[in-house]
Protein 1
Amino acid sequence: MSLIELSRKKSPWVIHVGTGGCNGCDLEILACLTPRFDASRFGVMSTGNPKHADIMLVVGPVTLKYKEIITNLYNQMPDPKVVIAVGTCASTGGIYQGCYGHCGSLDKVVPVDVYIPGCNVRPEAVIDGLVLGLDILNEKERKILEEKKKSKGAA
Amino acid sequence: MITLDDPIIWKIAFPAVMLILAPIIGGLLIGIDRKLTARLQNRAGPPIVQPFYDVLKLFGKEDKIVNKTYLVFAVAYLLTVVLSTGLLLFHYDLLVITFMFGLSFIFLVLAGYSVRSQFSYVGSNRELLQMLTYEPILLLVVFLDRLVTGSFQIDAIWSFTEPAKTEPLLYTLPLALLALFLILPIQLRKSPYDIAEAHQEIAQGPVTEYTGKFLGLVTIAHFYEVFFVLWFIGLYFVQNWAVRIGLMALAFLFSIVIDNVTARLRVDQMIRQVYIIGLLLIIVNLAYILITGKWIA
Amino acid sequence: MDGLLLLSLTVLVPVLFGIISYLVPGYNLKKYAVILCALVLSVASLLILYNGPQNLTVESINIGMSLPVSTIIIALDFLLLLVFLYFGYKDREYKVLGLAVLQLALLAYLELFVAGGEEAGITFVIDDLSIVMCLIVSLIGSLILLYSIGYMKGDKNVSSFFLIMMVFLGDMNALIFANDLTWLFFFWEGTTLCSFLLIRHYRDEPSIKASDRALWMNLLGGIALVCGIILIEMMYNTRFLSELFTAQATMPGALSFLPAAAIILPFAFMAVGAFTKSALMPFNSWLTGAMVAPTPVSALLHSSTMVNAGVYMLIRIAPLILIFGGGLLSTVITIVGGFSFMFCALLALSQTDSKRILAYSTISYLGLIAMCTGINTWLAITAAVALLVFHAVSKGLLFLCVGEITHIIGSRDIEQMQGLIAKAPLVTVITVIGLISLMAPPFGIFVGKWLAFQSASTFTQIGWSLVAIFFIIFGSIFSVFYYSRWAGKLLATKPAETAPPAHHDWYMEIPLIILAAGIFVSVALTTIFFTQLIDLPDIYGQEPGGLVVGEVLRSAFGGFSPLMFLILFIVILLIPILIIRVPKTSLTPTYSCGTGKEPDIGGGYFETLIGESKLLKYLNPIGILLLAILFLAVLL
Ligand code: SF4
């Protein structure tokens, strides 16, 4: 494992987006940063800025109004990036299933890498999901590099 | 045969090594800061080398760029900070060093202004206001240094020949040192004066639009800044290495504690507090050295 | 080469070309006259530089018959005042009328009753200071002339415009060479007239108002100057500047009620005259009002002529003040200058109109120069001369840039200039260079400020030195604030923004390029400039060890090398410019919380806190108070 790959695993910066859930999971995500759970042990830092972030934590079923915003945010995140759907409603629609005015679930809008079920999720689950996401980061980067090589070879 | 007290070692080799070590020291200090802050809040906190993980990771990320100008200024910012740290280590003219350090701020501000983002715009505006706040105090402190040592050259602090100069600066300028402590949070971008990078309100201020390696470069510049600021404070007791390092450590701990026990202030509060307290400290100290006659015309 | 020939080349030839350009029909012919004039003027000034210091006596002109110059000048002087009277009457401006009448009376008194020094003497002195000034006037003035060919195309009153511009340059050159005080007074009033006519170029309501204001303020300065001259002739019994150095001061019988220290009273009057010309604090409103004039006029007023005359005068009288023991007077000049430096910078901070920002910053830098002449040591006077030069180059450049930007976007508001670099890269980059040169090390203004800081540190009285340093620090920081905000605005482009290239007018752009190069060259040549072209009167003694050691500027307290830092600065910016590549694929919009909208950004001018209406209320009375203190300091 190269140094950069190691660092990537050690330093996940997170952007946290609420897209119209009941805010239950938002609070649990914040609880992760408190002394009891302390996600910053793993180098997690909440940035509030997609351009600095590696991981996007999305809560809520993505209301129609939020669809454009979440795609914009996703596009502004630099590669390699991981999207984590936090809570049942972000993963499947949850209690909003069949309701008008939202997209149903997050993966209908942007590609999702990790689903964390639960309504609401436990902080432990969020941390578990984050750690799962860390491995995906490096995998993704490898894939991107391979594709680059391929396209170069083709050219 | 070069021995340890050879002037070459202290004049050239040591500063050069320190210049290379500076970002490592700065980064480690920031890591210690994060760890200590975590412990103060009863958390485990990230490892001490976390800042280096962050920078290395940033170098492995994709670039998302708004325009070329702000990247140019970011690199210029880094280079200027390195230059002023180098000048400080190689004992150049203190006044020029202060102005060069100010120039690095100007570059950062220009970088923030040259993207059309409301966050970096507001951040730059605040950065300028912060500069407006700390730079006069810093320059006045430099002027006091010059009054006591008789020269703007850093070397003069080491020249123990004249009787007025044998004392460490700390004994003649204790309040000026306090004034430096006062502007420390501004220079280190820490609470209560972390107004420009107030990440809860305005994303990250002037550095909002950076991604990938350019953000990494800005972070490295910040490592240098931490080193620069503390080294500057170390000038107040050059007679004894132990005391000198202790002084730097004290300043550092002071900034951490203040960071943890205070909330962010508004700009006008900052300006008022720093000007009133800072100028008061400087004037009292000036009066002291004038009355005791410890100054050189 | 013959000094007289050079003198007439710099003084009379511009006037001659002005008349030619006025008379010839058609814009093209006028254009050639202007270009020729600019060429002759620049070459003549360089020849003067090459020729070195010289003293000249001009007593009469021979054109068929011998005409005594003195008489001609006195006749012209009265004519000039009658012109002022005429304008005062025409505009129903009673202040102008009253002041012109007063000046007439004083001048008549001077010519008829004051008998000081009737003997002939050196009438023109070409020394190092006047060579430097002549270079500023002629080189920058010529570039502004070239620029105005492009700028004034299609203007109605273009013939009179070129005539006055060129007469202005000739008159200014005469002013800086003049040694005879009565002649100097004539040329001094000449600049007043020229600036007055140029400010009212557009003949509309605001410009007539602004010009009248400029006129009465400068007439006030003229009165102060003529009072000073009368007193000098009475007290020192000479009317030649150069003879004042060795003159014997005697208090004339009519003024015997004054204390002995009042022997420096004439210099106080002359200083007040200089303050009005340089628009220092209580008189600042005429220069900010003068912004209604066409931009080349502003450039000329601010960088190479008008306002420089004031600080030139201060530099001239500074050693005399030192000789005749006016320490207190110097201190007050320091404070007046420092006050203007700091508070005009603060006022500039609240402005959005680019020309007003520049106007306030001009006043503030002139304040800095005045402050240096007040500190009045070897180092300080060097700083004053250096600042004069560097400021002229940068400020001339910036005004010309603003003129061109106004042509491109049709506005002078800096909020409108956002992202200009995409539209007009060349002008914008040059503007940014100009802005950076006014605030950042290692450019000329920084060298000047550094010298000023060093000289303030040697100031004998520690209390005053602290005040001076206080002014320098805050003034500099405020300048950094408004300049960097403006520079940033110019550079703020959207990602991948391109625009159709703006049209080029080489008459306007070549002067810009030359001046921008001039900024770098002037910094690179700083040390040579200091060793070769600054020769101060003996009264200052010498800087121990010399100011320039190799490439390093060195004072008693420290030193640095401008050239080295210039190279470092260029390297610091060139490395990223050359290395960084921006691939199209990685371009992305700015972060706007994901909404994808382009935010409107701006503001941060703090009008409610430090706007003109807030501050001037207090600053003007303080300025007037300082003037009163100036006289009190002399008399008590
Ligand atoms: S998953 Fe449940 S608790 Fe969480 S945001 Fe959705 S509705 Fe609220």
Protein 2
Amino acid sequence: MPSLKALRTIDLEQDYHAILIDMRHDRDDSLQSIHYISQQQNKVALIALCRDHAQLQRYKEVIHHLDDYILADHLVDGELPTRITHAIRRRLKEQELLHEQTRLQSLLDNIPDAIFFKDRESRFTKVNKRMQTVYGKAHPSLLGKTDFDLFSEEHAQAAYNDEQQIIRDGQPIVGKLEKETFEDGHFNWVNTTKVPLKDEQGRIIGTMGISRDITELKKAQDTLAHERSLLKTIIEHALAGIFVKDLAGHYLVVNQRHVKYLGAQAEPEVIGKTLYDFFEQSEAARISATDQKIMQSGQSIENLIDYRQRPDGSELWLLTSKVPLRDELGRCIGLVGISLDMTEQKLAERNLKKAIKTLEETKLQLIEAEKLKTVGRLAAGVAHEVKNPLNVVALGAEYLEGQIEGPEEMLEVIQDMRHAIQKANHVIFELLDYSSPHKVTMELGNINEIISQVLALMRHNFNESCITVHEDLSRQIEPVKLDASKMEQVFINLFLNAISVMKKGGSLTVRTRAEQIKSAGDNVSSKLTECFRIGDPVILVEVLDTGSGLNKEAIQKAFDPFYSTKTTGEGTGLGLSVTRSIIEMHHGVMTLQNRTDTQGACVRIWLPAAS
Amino acid sequence: MIKFKKSTPNKDARRVLVIDDEPAFTRMVKLNLEGTGDYIVESLNESRKAFEVAKAFKPNIILLDVVMPEADGGDVAQSLRSRSLTQDIPIIFVSAMVSQEESKKGFYQSGGEHFLAKPVDKDTLCGAIETVLLTLK
Ligand SMILES: Nc1ncnc2c1ncn2[C@@H]1O[C@H](COP(=O)(O)OP(=O)(O)OP(=O)(O)O)[C@@H](O)[C@H]1O
Ligand SMILES: [Mg+2]
């Protein structure tokens, strides 16, 4: 048996399972050895061997350090090894328990969650360090306190109710999100699990719980949720189409506007679909090729103008930008796109171009018209100047004709001169009328009467050319305000034109009708809708001939002053121009077209009926 | 060889004074009117002398050009009408500055005055003179 001195030099733990101290001889260092060993707190079982009970009594004060004692007087044969084995086993158990307890305590003390035990009345019976530091600022000890001492009434009551329910039902409450409002008003968000606390017999003696402060997490979550809703609002209300696609081109996010651009009705129709569900094969392939390029190269594209046709056939112009979408590691996982509807701008641009072109043309026309005006004015001046000398020639010729009896050739010469003068006079009249300011005297008159008068006046002209005249004049026609002599001139001009294209005979029809303007575009130029409204009462006059009709150029230019297909001297080309301005003076509209029923021309005149 | 008709004025031929700045015109009017034998015509190309000539010639009627460089038709008419010797002589204005309608009619009335539109022919000329003189009787 080594002495205490020797004992100190050995590694008890390492080398021994049990130490048997022989106390039978009452050695001084026996007590010290027991103290020393027990201080070591190790797994080595400590067994004392005494002579009898009386001797054991003497070591009462250290008996609790022993794992067992053996009384030599009572030792039965073969008992010793069993006793030692038992002692070792007990010692190990004890040691384990101790460890377990230390571990548990250390867990309780170090865990950042608050852990608590409560009795059936929800009074704290044990709390861990964390709980004490967080909730125990105002209370040096939480033991015996309740939630009502720590939190606002509202929260405390809810927690109390939960705990009472657990005690009643024995059912735990797991992971409940709780807002802990303190009496001073500040609050924490915690995730709490509470379970029933049972005694050895399985009776519920209270509750225990653990709650984790997730205030920061919750804050982060809320921020995230807020950002998410903000983003959603922006996306939904943006004046652009916004979409997100994955690598395979499936739509992940799409806003209402883009849904419309795709020709769909609602978001669910689009999510998970690809371009191929909305576009023709070739079109879808073209767009998705661009998408692939963006995702592979990682290069975004900006402001690409894209033309599309909506399912209803209307145009859609989009200004699209696409950016690769990346995950946290920077890997491309899809793309984000934004499309602006440019259709209106595009159409406006196109209209503008058209307008500019029309303006260019109009400018030329204006220049042309201005030229003509000047020519007209000049012509008027010239006409007056020409009149005097012409009159001298005319009177001279007339005098000579009256004075001379022969020879015959001389008389013929004089007659030719007089004819030439008459022709010149005629041209001067026309020029003058074209350029003179139009004085109009409007009086009530019947257009039918005027037509009949002119027809009668020109009867022999028609007969000469073997033209049959059909008068189809409606009796429904009321008198209207008109300048009779100007109106006469209108029909004289029209009939002369008709005669000149029917020199070898034909038929002329003059028709009048009382009508109402039915609808726009009724086979007439837009002028009609400019002058009249739908439903306006009008008088329609039609002059139809069976002449040559008009070629393309004539249809365009017939009304232009000085446009004439007649040989010089035959016509000045002012007839229709003057005619139209007279009709416009009467607030009417006039057209000249080819007939559709047979060859020939058709003049139509609409005059406002008197209201 | 040109043969001319013979014409001498009638006994009761009317005296016509033609005032126009264009001598060719007055000559033509004179020749045409006198050719009928019914008129004796005096030409005047300087409108300033209208009164003196009228006073001396004593016309039954005056043909007066409206547009003249010296004194225009309106002025001349006014001065003639303001003097007792000439105030009763009827005047027909002759003008080139008329519209086509007026031209077509040839002779017409406007604002109480008589007008002849240039170009004018012999028949219209004679017709106008006769009409005006007839209405005076
Ligand atoms: N009824 C018609 N059929 C075929 N062409 C026509 C008819 N009326 C007019 N045109 C065409 O339109 C042109 C212009 O007609 P417009 O009456 O203005 O002049 P014009 O008859 O030639 O001369 P004028 O000044 O003597 O009338 C004619 O030269 C002719 O080519
Ligand atoms: Mg014509």
Protein 3
Amino acid sequence: MNKIVEKVALSENVVKMILEAPAIARKRKAGQFIVLLMDEKGERIPLTIVDSDPERGAITIIFQVVGKTTAAMAAMKVDDYFSDVQGPLGNPTDIKKIGQIVCIGGGVGVGVVYPLAAALKQAGNRVISIIGARTKDLLILEEEMKQVSDRLIVATDDGSYGFHGFVSTVLQNLIDAGEKIEEVFAIGPVPMMKVIANLTRPYGIKTVVSLNPIMVDATGMCGACRVSVGGKTRFTCVDGPEFDGHQVDFDLLTSRLRMYCDQESVAYEKHKCGWHGN
Amino acid sequence: MKNTSVDGMETEEKKSKKEKIPRQQMPEQTPGVRVKNFDEVPLGYSEETAVLEAKRCIQCKKPGCIAGCPVDVKIPEFIQAITDGKFLEAAHILKETNSLPAVCGRVCPQEEQCEKVCILGKKGDPVAIGRLERFAADYERKTGQISIPDLPAPNGKKIAVIGAGPSGLTIAGDLVKLGYAATIFEGLHKAGGVLVYGIPEFRLPKAIVEAEVDYLKKLGVKIETNAVIGRIATIDELFAEGYDAVYIAVGAGAPVFMNIPGENLSGIYSANEYLTRSNLMKAYLFPEYDTPIVRGRNVAVIGGGNVAMDSVRTALRLGAENAYIIYRRTEVEMPARKEEVHHAHEEGVQFKLLTNPVEYIGDEKAWVTGMKCIRMELGEPDASGRRSPVPIEGSEFVIDVDAVVVAVGTMANPIVPATTPGLETNRRGYIVVKGESGETTRPGIYAGGDIVTGAATVILAMGAGKQAARAMHAYLSGK
Ligand SMILES: Cc1cc2nc3c(=O)[nH]c(=O)nc-3n(C[C@H](O)[C@H](O)[C@H](O)COP(=O)(O)OP(=O)(O)OC[C@H]3O[C@@H](n4cnc5c(N)ncnc54)[C@H](O)[C@@H]3O)c2cc1C
Ligand SMILES: Cc1cc2nc3c(=O)[nH]c(=O)nc-3n(C[C@H](O)[C@H](O)[C@H](O)COP(=O)(O)OP(=O)(O)OC[C@H]3O[C@@H](n4cnc5c(N)ncnc54)[C@H](O)[C@@H]3O)c2cc1C
Ligand code: SF4
Ligand code: FES
């Protein structure tokens, strides 16, 4: 049983929660995730650990409402409990001093890239961050990202705030302006990660992406989370979640993420399917 | 409801003069009814039938059955107690050596163990030891008269057990009875291992596993769920926290795929995923439960073991019109229990034998629509003694499918070995132990169950837990 100690709505459909999870808070490293269950009948939901406070014994998660469970979670209140929180899971990000790097976050992916940016900054890198959203009201963590970045560029698809356009265009502009970029970390909807990986490939800029396939156990036991990287099948929960973006088969990831669309829309009236879709 | 019996498959009883009572049948749900539900298939003996069956035992002076049991259950003794109508006592005798009799009575391959060597089997049918075991254990549970034995005073030593499958549960129970403080760390949110995530409700009701786990908790075993060792703590960190010894019982949980083209198409599952969704997450009750599962019309299950039978029978219950077993050898070589193959036949599973998939075909949404197979013939016996199948060139054909379950085996999960320096594993990733004690190459670390033997049986995993409990006790007493 894990108690919700804080809850904040970051935008119309993105929620931040702080949960009691002392052991995980002590142990987790940037890039790792948890799996949580609301109750006995719940689904196992993987979510990135955005932040942790070992002294308070608490971890932060940020999630977007995309289906039945995330909608139900958004309706939970401070002092409510999750029946289970399992973690930390997945491999931590390989944090080291690289030089100048770019961290890109799209939509709720900003929450996932934030711990990486923070850890990379602390390791002595010069961090340029690009964060984006469809529109100004949906942008999250601008302040937090500013604090862990040497430079922050904001983009909105509709131009309501910051740069008018996609985060990928901002990256292209940086490259065109002659910025020396050693490595890119790109996290967000699958189409965004695919575009960024295709963009950096011709320049030979190493690009790390964090994948979000459907998972069940998240311990390497089921293979639900299998993805194809460099033509080889890998299990995201134990081999990832981060992979070399130039090697990932994003189309396979997209099709596998749609596996339960029909059924999920039974469970969740609205007929839409995930933040990675479109 | 009309009931049939598994005895329908057994050879015609040849009655000897001494043996007047025939092997007692156990009532079952009829195939037509049971394929529409997930309730248990065999319904268990009544008190009368149990006593009748128990009376068949001739109480051998040198009972073969005990030698056939991996944990040396005192078989004639517990059967005698049933004959005398002392059902609770029968359960207590069972529990002296077998901490999970209600489970073993249901899933042990008795036909390969105790019943195989029962003297009555020489001339007719052996005593139905498994069914009697189930009866006694169920009787105890149903009457609620589960007794907690007197425990010795705590000896102040702490032991960490990794994995709450049958092996981990068994050793934890034994250690507590020896005065140790035992804590099980389990990666999933429920204890039981394969008993809760793999074996379906219709073969092993989850309430039974829960009752066994509750019993261990009452004994004083601590179970920490959601704790993946190697992630939340390494074994060395457990020692640093003050544990005196560690038992690794993480099973052989990683799925094996065949690495053929199209295997990652949507609709294709590993048996582990398919069964975990259905059993652990109760996807068969979706949308009441939140986890979905693909309900295919034409479902192909690849493999011929218990896991394949459990998967294909699950597919039928999820509404498949055609449920196939695709197996590259013949029924004779199938490693599944005969009873389960028989149940699958009765329920309408279609067996496509001497057949092996070579490629999957998908539609524009990358969903599997077909499976290209090749016909096989049996060649020379391989290392395991089974005749190895060889493909017949040019015999390819396509089966229409919209869901596939790959049940061709499992392998070692590397998380624990990879995070434990000095722990030796073999070529296939299984942990190397010295003989039956379960001692690994690191002092104070023991291992047993599927992570040592590769996929085996519940009773062998339990037996390994018992042996290791003794070895650990000797090691820690001498320390
Ligand atoms: C390692 C990892 C980290 C993640 N981190 C975050 C995060 O920090 N914030 C966030 O908002 N989301 C994150 N996700 C995605 C999040 O888990 C899903 O959005 C969530 O499970 C959807 O559940 P639902 O019941 O609300 O939606 P559903 O109605 O179940 O599904 C909506 C869509 O979400 C996807 N989905 C469903 N179940 C899962 C599942 N078990 N795993 C992954 N995707 C699923 C499917 O494509 C589905 O079509 C992460 C996923 C992974 C694998
Ligand atoms: C579908 C199916 C049907 C079967 N049918 C039969 C049958 O009819 N009869 C029979 O005798 N046998 C059967 N078996 C085999 C039998 O279930 C196994 O041999 C037995 O369960 C092995 O026990 P174990 O304790 O070694 O491991 P498991 O039962 O596999 O348990 C291992 C436990 O360890 C946990 N774990 C793994 N890694 C970690 C970690 N890093 N940290 C913490 N916990 C971890 C797992 O979550 C799991 O709960 C079947 C198996 C399957 C899959
Ligand atoms: S071998 Fe058969 S008859 Fe003899 S004691 Fe065992 S169960 Fe009874
Ligand atoms: S989620 Fe089951 S293996 Fe990764």
